[in-house]
Design brief:
The protein starts with 5 loop residues before the first strand and ends in a 17-residue tail after the last helix. It is α/β, with parallel strands linked by helices. The protein has 9 helices and 10 strands. Bound molecules: 5'-O-[(R)-(carboxyoxy)(hydroxy)phosphoryl]adenosine. 5'-O-[(R)-(carboxyoxy)(hydroxy)phosphoryl]adenosine (KG4) binds next to helix 4 and helix 5.
Length: about 350
């Protein structure tokens, strides 16, 4: 009889403290503590984030283990997010994982946060559809800090085919929300407003970048100047048009992302396409994937909402793959704030 592999995953790269237990690829339990403290500041404040992680990490890990219905002695190995992320936040999870691995005498596995987002597509969950992509596949990875098209050849061989040369998609949407005085994080707010708006009401300039890379900084500036000019004529312009503005801006971002992804599919001949990261929660982007499935024959993989934002299940899943290769890490491994996929 083969031995069960039970991985405890720990994620603390930004403002969510998350812990999850995965057994042989199946999610047993997860707990995530968000941080409301940043709302008043219009963005994540690194110092406050690391303090909140310190407070949250022990109860979060404890809850995840209880929800999983296991004893902590059952855990085979600990996976943790090594980076990229905020250094002060990462250090809390990294140190906790190291301490626990020493105390329990079990292996430690470092996980690249971005790879974790992609490998979330392999998590199995009781009562869910559990469709997993076969290798190779393409993945549009879109979050607050990253916008990339990744060719995934195996769980550890990933190649960036194209990426943003300036702002990430999520960052662009968050800034759009900020310009319009709508709050943070902007993604869910813009998404909600856009659903009630006319996406053809306004037109914003689309970036002209060659190949599979993209740029969002011009689009951001074009919105800023457009709003400034309109507000001069009518100070209530944003309030009166916020749904149409959100819908038109969101449409432009999604069109830019899908145009390059379509080009990547053409160039590689790979029609198995996944989406991952915080922005993959976006209604219009998810619909664009469904349209590609229905009209262009793509085999699409859209994650459940629970895996779009930062979560420890994806970290445990990535660690589960590495465990099978005995790909463990030493105790003196440092966290990385910046690291590629
Ligand atoms: O992956 P993530 O949780 O964190 C990292 O950046 O690592 O992504 C957060 C980003 C934010 O920019 C947030 O505004 C965006 O994902 N986001 C959305 C939606 N939900 C979250 N963007 C568009 N539509 C959404 N529904």
């Amino acid at each position: 009889m083969t031995k069960d592999i039970i991985i405890l995953g720990i994620e603390s790269s930004c403002d969510d403290t998350s812990a999850a237990v995965i057994k042989n690829g199946w999610l047993l339990g997860q707990a995530t503590a968000g941080q409301e403290v940043h709302r008043n500041y219009g963005g994540v404040v690194p110092e406050l984030a690391s303090r909140a992680h310190e407070q949250n990490i022990l109860p979060t890990v404890d809850t995840a283990i209880k929800r999983a219905g296991i004893n902590k002695e059952d855990i085979t190995a600990i996976g943790f997010t090594r980076g990229p992320g905020l250094m002060g936040s990462l250090l809390v999870g990294v140190s906790f994982a190291k301490g626990l691995s020493v105390a329990m005498g079990i292996p430690l596995i470092d996980v690249n946060h971005l790879q974790g987002h992609i490998l979330a597509h392999f998590i199995s969950e009781e009562g869910k559809e559990n469709r997993h992509p076969e290798f190779p596949f393409l993945c549009l990875l879109v979050s607050g800090g990253n916008s990339q098209i990744v060719k995934v050849d195996s769980y550890k061989k990933m190649e960036i085919l194209g990426q943003t040369i300036d702002d990430a998609a999520g960052e662009t949407i968050d800034k759009c929300s900020k310009f319009m005085g709508l709050g943070y994080p902007g993604g869910p707010i813009i998404d909600k407003l856009a659903r009630q708006g006319n996406a053809d009401a306004f037109e914003f300039s689309k970036p002209l970048v060659k190949g599979l890379d993209y740029s969002f900084s011009g689009l951001k500036t074009s919105l800023l100047y457009f709003l400034r000019d309109k507000m001069k004529e009518n100070p209530d312009f944003i309030e009166e048009n916020k749904c149409d503005l959100a819908a038109s801006f969101e449409k432009t971002v999604v069109e830019v992302l899908m145009k390059k992804l379509t080009l990547a599919v053409k160039q590689t001949g790979i029609k198995r396409v996944a989406v991952a990261g915080g922005v993959s929660a976006n209604t219009k982007l998810r619909q664009a994937f469904i349209d590609k499935r229905d009209h262009s024959g793509w085999d699409v993989y859209i994650p459940p909402f629970s895996y779009t934002t930062d979560n420890a299940a994806m970290i445990a899943m990535a660690a589960y793959f590495k465990y099978q290769d005995a790909d463990f890490c030493p105790l003196d491994l440092p966290a990385y704030s910046r690291v590629s996929i």
